[in-house]
Queue: 2 jobs
Job 1
Amino acid sequence: MKVVMIGAGYVGLVSGACFAEFGANVICVDKDEFKINALQQGDIPIYEPGLDDLVSRNVEAGRLNFTVELRQAVENADLVFIAVGTPTRRGDGHADLKYVYAAAEEIATYLKGYTVIVDKSTVPVGTAREVQRIIKKTNPDACFDVASNPEFLREGSAIGDFLRPDRVVLGCESGKAEKLLRELYRPLNLIEAPIHVTNLESAEIIKYASNAFLATKISFINEMSQLCEKVGADVHSVAKGMGLDGRIGKKFLHAGPGYGGSCFPKDTLALIRIAQEHGVSSRIVESVVEVNASQKARMVTKIRSALGGSEADKIIAVLGLTFKPETDDMRDAPSLAILPALIDRGAIIKSHDPEGMEEAKKLLPDSMGFMESVEETIKDADAVVLMTEWNQYRGLDLANVKSLMKGNVFIDLRNVYEKDVMLQHGFEYTCVGR
Ligand SMILES: NC(=O)c1ccc[n+]([C@@H]2O[C@H](COP(=O)([O-])OP(=O)(O)OC[C@H]3O[C@@H](n4cnc5c(N)ncnc54)[C@H](O)[C@@H]3O)[C@@H](O)[C@H]2O)c1
């Protein structure tokens, strides 16, 4: 089976490499020459655990190739996936579909023989039909079907998620297209991964509804964390007690600095706009977005009060900048909202992140320090803020941390440490909802 993946970003590159691992012949096409050159030389442009091995194994086997040339790839393809970005459109919160539509137009010109065009990008309801219309208009003789196959992988565990998914969703209205897609995903039959086939609109909604629901769980527990702090409850224990109920489930009930990343923030906003466009209210999702913004603001206040009411001239050591561990993705990371607010009020920030530093430097104020090691970051700090729970910050040598610091304030925004232990080590310890 010949597969083309348009877009070799977090989703396109992982999906392309995993389809090659399934046995398909995959060509990843990207407009970014720098990215394609790197990939052709065996360099992986993003940090995703296990991706370098997966890519090199499949390149060596001759099943995975990279190019900027769309024509030849598309002419020979059975399936062309669109996995380009759908960022928030500047100013209005809508998903910006310009990359998807441009890709559709480019693909249309080169179609030869029957081909299935598959939307893998997260796109508003109605996009697959618009892609269909664009292709038909650009190339009236093309023989094709359009399908929707939203992606549910999580950065940091993307390969495992793709190779062992909870489900595969196919929005598909032609038997021929469904047969090809089922054939592509056939290796998943072995692990009995459910393939859920539905119409185009339902597949598109499933992706947004799933992300909005997960974001709701996070905002819900973050709201509860505030109440817990006021009444002397422990949000960790509350989440555990809730999560043991099978109807609720324990995942996505960790209180923290608010959700971030390349999906939840933009997808919740886009869902609100989609609902508005169709004259339907989305009050729950609107509240989820509001609670998330206020949770980030609450973290600034929390840090300020832990520092005695003012962060001016205080040295704050920040551990972790990415929106979660095991990725270098900085898109909408809570650090991007929290740290500039502290710097504006005179804080002196030194920071460390195992993989996200290069991206972080582009997005955070130049006045911040980006340090090579945890020790350098912590040295002489008045306070440590644990922003992202990378493994290397979970087992810090607390006595060493304390001796390197000037002050003794430890603000744990991920509830990694136990209060008793921190007090025993002489820290003034603050966390979220406990
Ligand atoms: N990142 C995630 O965790 C994740 C998870 C599930 C779904 N998604 C969705 O998948 C889509 C892609 O996300 P991403 O994080 O991989 O984005 P990304 O920004 O990492 O990658 C997109 C790539 O597409 C390329 N591109 C844009 N237009 C192109 C064109 N016409 N031809 C060839 N290449 C083109 C860009 O150069 C870029 O390399 C988005 O809709 C996103 O919402 C992302």
Job 2
Amino acid sequence: MTHNLAKLVFWGVRGSTPTLERDTWRYGGNTPCLELNAPDGTRFILDCGTGLRMLGNQLTQALRGQGIRAHILVTHFHWDHIQGIPFFHPLFESQNHFHFYSFQSKSLGPNSLQQVLQAQLASPYFPVDVTMMTAARDFREVTGGEKWEVRGTRITAAWLNHPQGCLGYRFDTAGGSIVYATDNEPGVAEFDQNLRQLAHGADVLIYDAQYSPEQLATDRKGWGHSSWLEGVKVAREAKVRNLILFHHDPDSPDKVVDSFLSAARQEFPATWAATEGMTINLSERGVGVAIRESRLGQRRRIRFNATVTGQSEDGTAFEEKATVRDLSLQGAYLCLNSRPRLQSEMRVVIEAAGDQNRSSVLSLRGTVVHFDLGREKNQNGVGVVFIEDPEPGHPRD
Ligand SMILES: [Zn+2]
Ligand SMILES: [Zn+2]
């Protein structure tokens, strides 16, 4: 059975500047870029942060040789929303065609986005100039309140409250409705109303939740951003079905985003925190959220019993006995009589205590990252990070 399926993919969710800190990897460090595939296959790209580079590589690979077409909507010209453009390889290939939409900046005047592209690739900031961008490009300047249609998808733009201006966009597709409203500071009646009107009844609202409510009320007032609490208010007042917290602060480690999400869920259960690689499917059947594989460590098949406690989809707590089927391991610390060389390879074989059949042996290849001479009872402390193993000790699923 065919049904109208719209698919949204998050390629960048971080606000302001990309992050590479390890404590931000789980939500992701690339700046804003979303891909929306309408049910008829029309592709929209929302914002051009650093996530755009990965989307470009994925499109090039998936559509090998075929021309890539997309409608690219830019919310505003701050760095984090445009800095991926020079690294979007499909722009440098003549068989591709892109339709850009953005607004006319007060300081740049007509053809603002063309000027931005030229400036980004100008000397001495980039090795090649804009003439190397051989893909066909056309540009349309839109404004708040404007509505238009692209192959069956209705788009509405609305002004948000942000320094130098920012547009929020709504997409009404045959699969469902999505509102992308990032970079907005609440508290100005006109814009607050714009946002509620734009978001009214939407299946999915993606909203700026950069700061905590406390930060927003004090030292971050006037920076043009919002909080999870404001997101919850908008979601309730506009009768939105699902709220996605977006534009995470570069100085927010994963555990801070976790805390925003859990606070928001207390107030509005259908809330998610935008995560790099997250997908949202919208159809007559409803909205489905999925997160791509995020375990980085090597996986090893193993069976042992565990008691698992957690929270069900409906918010109730559960506890059950279960079997762990595989484990991914990042590294270990052990005590040795030997003195392994720093950055040399090592193999560690772990046996589960009391396992006569050796059925739960874990064989792991690692690289030594730490060495402590005589750390414990004359043995040396050794840190190891497990690495890709071409011949794992056990077959995988
Ligand atoms: Zn931003
Ligand atoms: Zn901004």
